[in-house]
Write a structure and sequence with these properties.
Layout: H1 3-28, E1 30-34, E2 48-53, E3 58-60, E4 67-70, E5 79-83, E6 90-97, E7 102-106, E8 109-112, E9 115-116, E10 118-121, E11 138-145, E12 148-155, E13 166-170, E14 175-179, H2 189-192, E15 195-196, E16 202-212, E17 218-219
Antiparallel strand pairs: 1-2, 2-16, 3-4, 5-6, 5-16, 6-14, 7-8, 7-13, 8-9, 10-11, 11-12, 14-15, 16-17
């Protein structure tokens, strides 16, 4: 190593080590991800930065999908991140079917293991103030099934999506069925298929902060540190 290289390393090694530690931390322990699409509306808004617990289920070798230890299995209703098996794009979706579940949907009405979900209209006061409404004309519901309750949105048109019906399908061992809460606008398991256990990177726990892209990137103060596990 030349004297110049030694000088550069001495001057910058602290910064380089900091960046390396941060990359390892974000890869294997916890991360914050930008949400660029509305596929998880109304739970997650476009512009939210979500905090992902990457130790929720297991410990991975940084920058790989290789597991060193496993302590929990993903549960039905968890919001998780994973690289799409179709194109490796990072996605955030909700687990709807776990291994062995028999899942079906008819005109956006979900059935799991023979139990049909109950849909209760959401009052306007319950919605985030920045949730998209007109001119898209969405309807909002609490979807309750097998002890899990979440808020979803559907287009006002009854058959807004050609994927509003499917199945019944049985979730294979070691795989999960993912759906977006914005049921008529989500590239989820209806398009990309089941997601294997090894692809799940972590569980989305909360929103770190949020920027309103339609309002000059103003921060949404009501979204700071909002929990995603209460939905």
């Amino acid at each position: 190593m030349t004297d110049r290289m030694r000088t550069i390393w001495r001057d910058w090694r602290g910064f380089v080590l900091f960046i390396a530690i941060m990359l390892v931390f974000r890869s294997a322990i916890a991360d914050w991800n930008q949400v660029p699409t509305g596929s998880m509306l109304p739970t997650i808004l476009v512009g939210d930065r979500i905090v992902v617990d990457k130790l929720a289920y297991d410990l991975r070798i940084p920058f790989t999908l290789t597991r060193l230890a496993r302590w929990h299995e993903p549960e039905r209703g968890d919001v998780v991140t994973f690289p799409s098996p179709e194109n490796e794009q990072l996605l955030v979706k909700r687990i709807v079917g776990i291994p062995g579940d028999v899942v079906a949907m008819e005109n956006n009405v979900l059935t799991i293991n023979g139990e049909r979900a109950v849909y209760t209209p959401v009052e306007d006061a319950e919605l985030p103030p920045t949730t998209v409404r007109e001119p898209f004309r969405y309807r909002f519901f609490h979807e309750s099934i097998l002890g899990d309750d979440r808020m979803i949105m559907l287009h006002e048109a009854r058959y807004a999506s050609n994927k509003s019906s499917f199945g019944p399908v049985t979730v294979p061992a070691g795989s999960y069925l993912m759906l977006g809460d914005n049921r008529d606008n989500s590239q989820d398991s209806r398009y990309i298929g089941f997601v294997t256990r090894d692809r799940i990177l972590g569980r989305a726990e909360s929103i770190a902060f949020s920027l309103d892209y339609d309002n000059y990137y103003q921060p949404r103060t009501d979204r700071f540190f909002a929990s995603l596990t209460d939905h």
